[in-house]
Design the sequence.
């Protein structure tokens, strides 16, 4: 993930005047993150939500007279986890004092903070991965929390195609749940998130897809199902829906534009390979296959309509 370069007032005044600096902010050439801390507006507008969250955290660190420990979705971004519907305007911190005070653009959380719950990442003090997942699971929406928990499990316990360490993943879930028990709030919510979380979901869209599939009535949802391919390596399908004798795939459009995924191929070549792969899977398994993207995940009803177009329905 590309990082944003912060520019302090002192740095900028080495090459410009206070009046020109004020004009640059007024005209929108610079975006002010905090008093005396700026970022190039073009870069800011092009940045991913996670990069913006991290930039705001660094900006607060530059302005804060005391050490700051970032938590919740801010810590998740620092850990390299994707965020779903991120709050781009505020950062989350853990307040060591009993009654956290107010600050613009900052959400302060009460809570004990043992030393082993804090790590340093990229110059930021943040809560540990397990503590971060636990806090998000307790306080965020189900969709946001599952996205973070899935990504943490994927980051730690997916070692290759079709390889997932279920035993260690379960140990991590129990660690996060144990941390959640320290708090007086959100334990039931955290338990629901952690029981549902599965690191085999490869993208945030797959995490949200699982939630929507469950909401419309599917109870058996297999992830990364291996299907014998033409050669020695199997194909992997995002979702196996045995109850409907079908497969499902979340189709993020990024695979057709991301250079790392294209790996030297054109978008049309990738599209053609995907079609051939899908035809092979359909022909060898005699199962229906449905593809969907973000427009079909806004609500459960949207995904249901998409699946019905392929004659795929949940069990009665």
Sequence:
């Amino acid at each position: 993930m590309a990082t944003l370069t912060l520019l302090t007032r002192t740095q900028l005044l080495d090459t410009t005047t206070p009046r020109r600096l004020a004009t640059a902010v007024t005209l929108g050439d610079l975006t002010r993150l905090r008093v005396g801390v700026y970022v190039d507006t073009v870069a800011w507008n092009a940045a991913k939500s996670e990069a913006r969250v991290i930039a705001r955290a660094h900006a607060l660190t530059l302005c804060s007279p005391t050490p700051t420990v970032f938590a919740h979705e801010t810590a998740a971004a620092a850990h390299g986890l994707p965020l779903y519907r991120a709050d781009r305007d505020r950062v989350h911190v853990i307040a060591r004092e009993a009654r956290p005070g107010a600050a613009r653009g900052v959400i302060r959380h009460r809570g004990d903070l043992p030393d082993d719950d804090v790590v340093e990442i990229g110059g930021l003090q943040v809560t540990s991965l397990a503590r971060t997942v636990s806090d998000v699971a307790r306080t965020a929406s189900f969709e946001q929390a599952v996205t973070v928990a899935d990504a943490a499990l994927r980051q730690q316990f997916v070692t290759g195609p079709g390889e997932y360490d279920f035993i260690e993943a379960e140990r991590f879930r129990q660690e996060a749940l144990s941390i959640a028990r320290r708090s007086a709030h959100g334990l039931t919510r955290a338990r629901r998130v952690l029981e549902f979380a599965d690191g085999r979901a490869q993208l945030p869209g797959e995490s949200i897809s699982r939630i929507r599939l469950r909401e419309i009535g599917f109870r058996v949802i297999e992830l990364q199902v291996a299907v014998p391919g033409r050669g020695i390596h199997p194909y992997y399908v995002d979702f196996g829906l045995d109850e409907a004798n079908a497969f499902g795939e979340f189709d993020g459009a990024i695979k057709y534009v991301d250079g790392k995924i294209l790996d030297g191929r054109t978008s049309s070549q990738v599209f053609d390979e995907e079609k051939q792969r899908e035809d092979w899977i359909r022909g060898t398994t005699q199962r229906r296959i449905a593809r969907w993207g973000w427009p079909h995940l806004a609500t459960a009803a949207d995904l249901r309509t998409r699946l019905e177009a392929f004659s795929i329905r949940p069990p009665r």
Q: What stands out?
A: The chain has three domains: 1-47, 51-196, 204-308. The chain is about 45% helix and 20% strand.
